[in-house]
Amino acid sequence: MNIILFGPPGAGKGTQAKKLQNEYNIPHLSTGDIFRAAIKNETPLGVKVKSILDSGELVPDQTVVDLVADELHKEKYQYGYILDGFPRTVVQAKAFDAFLDKNDDNLDAFISLSVPENELIKRILSRGEGRTDDTEEKIRTRLNVYRKETEPVIKHYKKQDKVQEIDGSGTIDEIFERIKAALS
Ligand code: ADP
Q1: Domain count of the chain?
Q2: Which residue segment(s) compose the domain that 152 sits in?
Q3: Would the CB of 85 count as within 6 Å of ligand 1?
Q4: Distance 139 CA to ligand 1 centre (A)
Q5: Distances in Å between the alpha carbon of 43 and those of 24, 34, 46, 132, 144?
Q6: Which one of 13, 19, 36, 178 is the catalytic residue?
Q7: Ligand 1 within 6 A of 58 CB?
Q8: Over the stretch 16-70, which tens digit does the pLDDT of each residue have?
Q9: Does the reported pTM lie above 0.90?
Q10: Catalytic residue among 19, 36, 142, 178
Q11: Fewer CB near the last or first residue (10 Å), C or N of the chain?
């Protein structure tokens, strides 16, 4: 099963992706986590993307698309995966469609978590992960980038009739139950 978990910063994609990974036994691929690990380990990728993540802007499409394609060729993803943080632009979504086609594969579900904006800011500020992009100013930048670059991805998958909108407010378990119901 190939799933895209979609939503604005702070919507709880990472939290729900981990729960889905346990429930369905399919690995979770978070592009944000990969970038943060690369920055921490000071790899060439990390050096390249550090200032971009710090600013709250997006990493160039080609860099992300190449990274995800490389990653998904690993054996652990052969029976499916949960994507979190990708695709984040329409260009990335089209590249991902082409990737699936080329590998004779398809997308099973696009789960879109919706949460009111004031709630998103509150959640990010209170989660205290110590991320350099979790200041109020950077969160606003990320939300602006989301509205402008990322939200149009929903329309792209609506055309494919794949989108399932889930109410992302409530407790972690309530949201998880809604996602499971949508997937069944
Ligand atoms: P959040 O959803 O809370 O903003 P992520 O961990 O998904 O956090 O992403 C953190 C940062 O990593 C983004 O602000 C962006 O700079 C970069 N990033 C992650 N995924 C992508 C992507 N698919 N395309 C471009 N940049 C990305």
Answers
A1: 1
A2: 2-183
A3: yes
A4: 12
A5: 32, 11, 5, 18, 29
A6: 13
A7: yes
A8: 999 999 999 999 999 999 999 999 999 999 999 999 999 999 999 999 999 999 9
A9: yes
A10: 142
A11: C
